[in-house]
Amino acid sequence: MNVDVVSTTAALWSGEASSVVVPAADGSMGILTGHEPVLALLKPGTVRITPTSGGGPVELEVDEGFVSVDDDAVTVVVERGARATEQ
């Protein structure tokens, strides 16, 4: 699935991923290929992305925002964010 994580000032991460975990307002939400369409509010926390291109997971510390999932396209929009780790 195609994943884009953006803040109000910059693109934080973009690419193909096999899974994404976001800090939804009601608790962590895991997103896999074929996920039903959803729009959810995010609370401050960590977005975890497992890229399909190999390498380790990517973690981004984010502020409040929202996530949109539609047709294997995941868009995460946050006020602020920064790369925490890339293992």
TrEMBL record:
Classification via Pfam families: ATP-synt_DE_N
SUPFAM superfamilies linked to this entry: Epsilon subunit of F1F0-ATP synthase N-terminal domain
Domain of life of the native organism: Bacteria
Main location: membrane
Membrane-protein topology: Peripheral membrane protein
Subcellular location field: Cell membrane
CDD domains to which the protein is assigned, alphabetical: F1-ATPase_delta (cd12152)
Protein's UniProt keywords contain Membrane: yes
Entry keyword set: ATP synthesis, CF(1), Ion transport, Membrane, Transport
Cleaved signal peptide residues: none
Residue ranges of domain ATP synthase F1 complex delta/epsilon subunit N-terminal in the record: 1-80
Quaternary structure note: F-type ATPases have 2 components, CF(1) - the catalytic core - and CF(0) - the membrane proton channel. CF(1) has five subunits: alpha(3), beta(3), gamma(1), delta(1), epsilon(1). CF(0) has three main subunits: a, b and c.
UniProt similarity note: Belongs to the ATPase epsilon chain family.
Name assigned to this protein: F0F1 ATP synthase subunit epsilon
Native organism: Georgenia alba
